[in-house]
Amino acid sequence: MSAVPFDIMENIPANLISLIAFAIVMLVAMLLLALKNRFGQHIDELQRKLENQEMQLIALQTLLAQSQSQAESYQQISTESQIENEQVSKQLEHRIKVAQEQFNSKLQAIEQLLHQQPEDKLYSRAQKLVELGADIAEIMRECDIPRAEAEMLLSIHRKKVSK
């Protein structure tokens, strides 16, 4: 029985074996060609995706550069504004200091006026009475000053008025 299969092989002509081998080679070649086409399409699709991603990357890099430029511009504006605010603040501090000094000076003058000696107040009042037209007796009585001083105030007033 085992001799039968060898006999079958002996009966197959060499051309048929060549033909079968050629058919197998052709099938493998067609299969390889189909695989090549399929992988070629896949490669083309991947290349299109890569190009698309490269374009998106360039667009994103452009946007990033613009954003950085705007950020730098805003930073510069912010810095300039901060410097300006500091200068204004210093000017205001100086003005406040000057105003406080003026206020303190005027407050001291007011306190000095309030603490004037009572005699100064009497002479100031006597001067007012002279300007209002009071006579010597009234000035002496209201301000409690001697007659000579009242006469002196009246003569000074008359000299001012005559000029």
- How many helices? The count is 5
Total beta strand runs: 0
Tertiary shape: rod-shaped
Mean pLDDT over the full residue set: 86
Main sheet summary? none
Measured between the Cα atoms of the first and last residue, the distance is: 168 Å
- Briefly note the structural class of the backbone: mainly alpha
Brief account:
The protein is an all-alpha fold and 163 residues long.
Protein topology:
Elements: H1 3-11, H2 14-114, H3 118-131, H4 136-143, H5 147-162
Helix pairs in contact: 3-4, 3-5, 4-5
Account of the 3D structure:
It is a single chain. 91% of the residues lie in helices and 0% in strands. Helix 3 runs antiparallel to helix 4, helix 3 crosses helix 5 and helix 4 crosses helix 5. The model has no long low-confidence stretch (mean pLDDT 86).
Notable features of this structure?
rod-shaped, 163 residues
